[in-house]
Amino acid sequence: MSVKGHEAVSIDFAQDRLLFGEDFLGTQLRDLWSNGGTGGVAVVDAQTGGIVRVTTGALTNNSHHLQWGENPNEIRSLHVDKKVTIEVRAKLNQTTQIAVEYRLRFDWNNYIFFNYNSLGGANWFIRCRDGGAGAGLDSGIAADTSYHIFRIECFPPDEVHFYIDGVETANSPITTNIPDDAGDFLQPALNIQTLTNLAKSMDIDYIAIRQEI
Predict the structure, then answer these.
(1) What's the domain count of the chain?
(2) What is the pLDDT of residues 52-71, one digit of tens each?
C-alpha cells in the first residue's frame, strides 16, 4: 500500500456530539467490526496512517463487507429520528467492473446509502429505501480513484442530505422512503463487489458517526 497523509475527521467531536470514531489505527480491526464475504479480506495497515483495505475475491460477484457485528449478532444503535450523521473517507482502487456501497442499514429493504456500480454509469448514486421502496438517484459526481469524504446527514422527519467533499450532491436532499420507523435501528455497513474475475479493493481512512442522545 502506498503511504498517505492521514486526514483529520471533519465532524467536530464536541459540537457534533460524536458517538463513534474509527481511524483504523493498529494492526487489526476492533472487536465490534465484522468483515466477511466470498473469498475476500479486510486488512488494517497502520503504516499508511491508519486505513483498512477491503478486498474482494477474484471471481465474478465475489464481495466483502465491513459492518458492526455479524448476523445474528449485528449491532444496530443508530436512528434517523436522532439526526444520525455518518462520514466516511475512502477511495476506490479501481473504477471498472466494480460495485461499492457505503450504507446506514437496518436490512436489505431499509437503508440509506451512497452506491457506485460501474455497470450503471460513471457516477455515484444516492438512495433511501423504506420497506423495499425507493429508487437510486444520480449524485452528478463521477467515481475515481482519489480519496473523498462521503457524508450522510439525517434531519427528521423527512430529509436526508448527501455530501461528497463537503458539497451537496445532485438530487439531495431525499425526502421520501426514509427508513425511520420506530424499530429501524441502523448500523454502518460498507461493501465492495467485483463484477469480473479479478479482485477489487477500496481503502477506508476513517468512519465518524454522531447522533443526538
Answers:
(1) 1
(2) 999 999 999 999 999 887 76
